[in-house]
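Chain A, query sequence.
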Amino acid sequence: MRSFFSARLFPVVAAAIICASVIVVYSNTFTSAFHLDDFRQIAGNPRIRNLTYLPYILFQELRGVTFHTFALNYLASGLDVTGFHLVNTLIHIISSILSYFVLAATFTRLSWPVPRVRAVAFFSALLFALHPVQTQSVTYIVQRMESLSALFCLLALLLFIFADGVKRLQSKILLYFGVLFTYVMAFYSKEIAITLPALIILYDYYFLSGFGLRGLVKRAPFYALLLTLLIYFAVSTIIPLGGFGDLSDGAIGSDGLSAAAGVVSSEGVAPRESWESAGFNVKGLSPSEYMYTQLNVLTYYITLLAVPVNQNIDYDFPVSTSLFKAPKVKGGTVLNYPQPPSVVSLLILALILCAAFYLARHSVGPATGEAESSKLSGGVRGTGAVASFFIFWFFITLSPTSSFIPIIDVIFEHRLYLASLGFFVVGVLAIVTLSERIFTSLDRRGENGASSFRR
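Chain A, predicted structure.
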């Protein structure tokens, strides 16, 4: 097994295995029909059928990058669903391969043995590629928005890692501008990418700056540009939208495009009340109720990743009206377990976050701020730091849709797409670390037994 992961061409083999596995798993979905929002956003959207609208869609339409790909799909094969599914699957393949290279580049910086680097990166990426919870992001055509945004986020992070490794100033600047460009592409694929600066800064703090501030300060000009983009996105898009919706039917104007993006049809922009599906004015769902509900949603997401059963494209998830009272579940609703009072989920999530802070704290020397190998879990430098970072990754990437800002749909599986990578890394790392400890213990016992026999 070690020789398999140590092979010189293993990264190519890993990419080929991921690609082939995804094709095999999703090949039976290539002829699946349009569903739900697909009709409004794609099949019934006149704008993607006219080439003259392509520049307008790309630069002025909300999620214009994704809609541009829909338009190109229509140009290539009309409304034949096979073409749309093939592109969705290709995006998922690229995202899965990018996740492998991001993880491998990260673990290599920690001076792990090559087989360990590649094993953890490969199995995490393979889980990301094949886990059933990704089905909605891949097969529900309109949710190309989610997977395409994730693809650009992963590409941005990989470019950022490469930028730290090059010495030529021109190359470094070019790579940093590549990060900024892919951030723009990610955001205009879907607004949930707004959290990318937080991931990059946290990544820098953990893996490039050694839990110190010197590296962050050194990259201050780049971060200034990155945060400027974030502020622009928030002011120009997020605040007018009122939050992070999913462009469901309630968020779409009469012409099949988002009225929130300022699209004007022959009948004018749809009234605000007709598309307001996110923000503090969402009817029937207060910020406190949404926040209480999201505590249960987050724990449900975790259990769904651990045990992917009873998946649903449109959950009738119970709304929590109190922190200490179990929500009422409607008759016929199928969930994996009875929903507890939100305070129970709050305690579970708090314990997970405390574990992340603990692992981060014990990855840092008390005097120098440098990572100390003797204090890291598993006996391998950086193991605790990796687990801590990817726990935060999970919560940061879900924060736009799992906060106190109401969204009319409280839960969707496709929101887990990029966040799930954090869960998979922590899970694989836990299994690998436990296995290493077991085999090390067995080896020691064997050595002691052999020593006693010789005596």
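The longest helix spans residues 419-454. Residues 249-275, 365-379 have pLDDT under 50 and may be disordered.
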